Fold this sequence. Notes:
The protein has one domain (4-81). The protein has 6 helices and no strands. The chain has helices spanning 4-11, 17-24, 30-37, 41-57, 59-62, 69-81. Helix 3 (30-37) packs across helix 4 (41-57).
Amino acid sequence: MLGIKRLLGMIGGKLEKGVKVCLLKGPTNQYVAVKMHGISQATMSRVANKVHLALGELRKDIVKFPSSIEELMKAMAAFYKN
């Protein structure tokens, strides 16, 4: 599973510094982020959209589907193990 710091390393060049700082403070909902950082809801929505688009560009590198029955069974076991 990818951590937030690793994801930021992958998409960091596509995001402004303020966006990175907001993400590093931890996962939260938009309302809490708006109040915490003193930004408008509109700004937070734009930030979320930029992150969404940057992650979307990496989907082929991040999202992997099993290519064999063995890989599928291993992924299923790992899912239920955690």
